[in-house]
Amino acid sequence: MTFWNDPIHFIAEWLRGLFIGWGMSGDVANVLIALIGAVVLASVAMVLDILLVWVERKVVARFQDRLGPNRLGPFGLFQPFADILKLIIKENITPAGADKVPYNIAPILAMTAVLLLWAVLPLAPTIFGVDLNVGALYLIAAGALGTLAIILAGWSSNNKFALIGAFRAVAMMVSYEIPMVVTLLIPTILAGTMSLNGMVKAQDVWFVVLSPLAVIIFLISAVAELGRAPFDLNEAESELVAGYHVEYSGMKFGLFYAAELLHAFTFGGFMAVLFFGGWRGPWAEQYPLLGLLYFFVKAMIGYWVFMWIRYTMPRIRIDHMLAFNWKFLTPLAFVLLMVTALVDKALAGAETWVYALGMFLANVVVAWVTVEILRAYSRRRRLEEEAPAKQVIRTGVEGQAAHH
Fold first, then answer.
1. Domain assignment present for 18
2. pLDDT, tens digit, for every residue of 273-291?
3. How far apart are CA 127 and CA 139, in angstroms?
4. Which of 58, 132, 221, 354 is in Cβ range 3.0-4.6 Å of 180 for a Cys bridge?
5. pTM attached to this predicted model
6. DSSP character string of 202-218
7. How far, in whole angstroms, is CA 403 from its chain's centroid?
8. Selection from 229, 218, 205, 241 nearest residue 350 by Cα
9. Residue 191 belongs to domain spanning
10. pLDDT tens-digit map of 62-81
């Protein structure tokens, strides 16, 4: 074993030998190594978060025909550090009447919910926190902590606007978690495992080819889960200002903001893992650091898509947003899951190209049927809305005829 072939285990074995040489028992050394690994992984995620602040500002500047940060450091790279310093030295205000314990826990819980997701994120063949055999289930459970953080922040702030913003955010997140959970089952069926690293290894053909509709549903659900435009109803500027975190200042607000950015990149990473082969690429298994590069490139592309949607789409009205989920997206996700399961069973044992073609054509059929149903529904609604106008015109014509 060399550093380039398996860097994590190489460093772990070196540390283990070092700790045992200092007189530690093997069990204590293993616990300490695991603790160091967790701290390093969380630190990498937080440092990456600082870079994402700069990336987000540069990208939105290009969308809006601006320059973005360009003063502090080369290309404005030091601007996020100045922002962090500003947030740290700003006064942390606790509103009168606020419930102090949940009020102060909420921003920490929001960031923790995102960092916990990194525990099962396979960054490379041998670089990951833990390879759970129920990784997809863990993803759902850990992600739910973010919902708890939002409702705690809104309720404990003793502010009706914060509370309404929290209710909006939770209603949206709980609603769109349903199609997200359903689409998570599709890679599980295709790979035959709930292990995220197992899903990556099973993608001889990327799952985006086998189930492109699942990618679209997961993308829409992820944007809603993140609370980013066009689903940012929790902080609609004309109504709620900043929504559930309107009463937060200083680094407490900074934690909410950092959690949102890191959450977006994390979802980009999960899209890469579930549908785009994750760390897989040429020579990735021989050189895990190369697989790490493949993963980050794919995750950054996913993050860029999230930014593209955020800075392009207008905000959706809340009743339209919930109706879109419950009347369209959720039924479509369940239908796609059933079709995927049936086709997977029917094509079990078939050659890879036959299986891939069958899955892709099944998605095409589901998409075609969906479009036809929507077309018939829109035609019926248009006729219903035109009927009163036609009745008024007919009544007017008949009245003029009678008058003459």
1. no
2. 999 999 999 999 888 989 9
3. 18
4. 221
5. 0.90
6. T-SS-HHHH-HHHHHHH
7. 66
8. 205
9. 90-394
10. 988 888 898 888 899 999 99
388 in a domain, yes or no?
A: yes
Backbone dihedral angles phi then psi of residue 127, each to the nearest 5 degrees: -115, 100
What is the C-alpha to C-alpha distance for residues 209 and 194, in angstroms, rounded to an integer? Answer: 19
- Token representation of residue 317: 């009205």
The encoded tokens of residue 61 equal 């500047």
Highest mean pLDDT among 53-67, 140-154, 325-339, 381-395: 325-339
Tokens 């891939």 correspond to 356
Distance separating alpha carbons of residues 299 and 273, to the nearest angstrom:
9
Assess if residue 124 is contained within a domain.
yes
Structure tokens at 402: 């009678």
Question: What element of type H or E holds 175?
Answer: helix 160-191
Q: What HEC string does 256-306 produce?
A: HHHHHHHHHHHHHHHHHHHHCCCCCCCCCCCCHHHHHHHHHHHHHHHHHHH
Residue 322 belongs to a domain: yes
Report yes or no: 184 and 136 within 8 Å, Cβ to Cβ: yes
Number of structural domains (the chain) is 1
pLDDT for position 242: 72
* Contact status, residue 362 vs residue 340, Cβ threshold 8 Å: yes
CB 137, CB 194: distance < 8 Å: yes
Nearest one of 41, 43, 179, 219 to 121, comparing CA atoms: 41
